[in-house]
């Protein structure tokens, strides 16, 4: 798939078929995240793969009742590792760079999923403390996004986009 086709064709998928995502396909999706840029090449993010139905239900509840999370075959929970980035970049590393690293990895993951025929959706609205509690995350691992992943059972239309001229500024 052409890169620009993938960028323009990717959609947020919230309805999934029951088909299982093969572990080899899952590895390809996550590997795309590994190749994302990161501050100082520290790769200060981690991913928790959630397949357990009870845990998916808890994550859906922590995401303010977004039930489609529990209906996906699996959820990838992207976490920023604040300690890794802080070791080199101090507060800016722990408060910003690790979040950016996880976001860059997430974008690669979303595009790779689309290219492989999977559907996914970036979910950033959730109770961070509840997600960390349900997954028993170590201190310093901050959940940044929940990405439900599976084979799409919908084909949403493209969302509207602002005209580029409205947000491009040259020299200030």
Describe the structure.
It is a single chain. With 172 residues, the chain is an alpha+beta fold. The protein has a single domain, classed as 3-Layer(aba) Sandwich (NADH Oxidase). It has six helices and four strands; from the N terminus they run ααβααβαβαβ. It has helices at residues 3-9, 23-34, 53-62, 68-71, 82-115, 128-135, and strands spanning 45-50, 74-81, 119-120, 141-150. α2 crosses α5 and α3 runs antiparallel to α6 (128-135). It starts with a helix and ends in a 22-residue tail after the last strand. The model has no long low-confidence stretch (mean pLDDT 97).
Short description:
The protein is an alpha+beta fold and 172 residues long. It has helices at 3-9, 23-34, 53-62, 68-71, 82-115, 128-135; strands at 45-50, 74-81, 119-120, 141-150.
How are the secondary structure elements laid out?
Blueprint: H1 3-9, H2 23-34, E1 45-50, H3 53-62, H4 68-71, E2 74-81, H5 82-115, E3 119-120, H6 128-135, E4 141-150
Antiparallel strand pairs: 1-2, 2-4, 3-4
Helix pairs in contact: 2-5, 3-6
Q: What is the CATH top level name?
A: Alpha Beta
Rounded radius of gyration (Å): 17 Å
The main β sheet shows up as: 4 strands, antiparallel
The proportion of residues in beta strands is 15-25%
Count of helical regions: 6
Report the strand count. 4
Could you give me the name of the CATH homologous superfamily? Answer: NADH Oxidase
Classify the secondary structure makeup into a structural class.
Answer: alpha+beta
Question: At the third CATH level, what is the topology name?
Answer: NADH Oxidase
CATH architecture, by name, is 3-Layer(aba) Sandwich
Biggest sheet strand line-up? 1-2-4-3
Averaged pLDDT, please?
97
Kindly give the count of domains.
1
- Point out poorly predicted stretches: none
């Amino acid at each position: 798939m052409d890169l620009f086709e993938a960028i323009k064709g990717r959609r947020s998928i919230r309805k999934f078929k029951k088909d299982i995502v093969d572990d080899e396909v899952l590895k390809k999706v996550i590997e795309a995240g590994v190749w994302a840029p990161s501050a100082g090449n520290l790769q200060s993010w981690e991913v928790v793969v959630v397949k357990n139905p009870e845990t998916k239900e808890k994550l859906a509840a922590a995401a303010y009742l977004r039930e489609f999370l529990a209906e996906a075959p699996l959820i990838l929970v992207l976490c920023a590792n604040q300690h890794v980035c802080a070791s080199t970049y101090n507060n800016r590393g722990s408060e910003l760079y690790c979040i950016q690293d996880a976001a860059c990895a997430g974008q690669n993951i979303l595009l790779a999923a689309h290219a492989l025929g999977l559907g996914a959706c970036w979910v950033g609205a959730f109770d961070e403390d509840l997600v960390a509690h349900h997954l028993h995350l170590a201190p310093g691992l901050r959940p940044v996004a929940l990405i439900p992943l599976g084979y799409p059972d919908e084909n949403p239309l493209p969302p509207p986009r602002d005209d580029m001229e409205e947000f491009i500024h040259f020299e200030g």
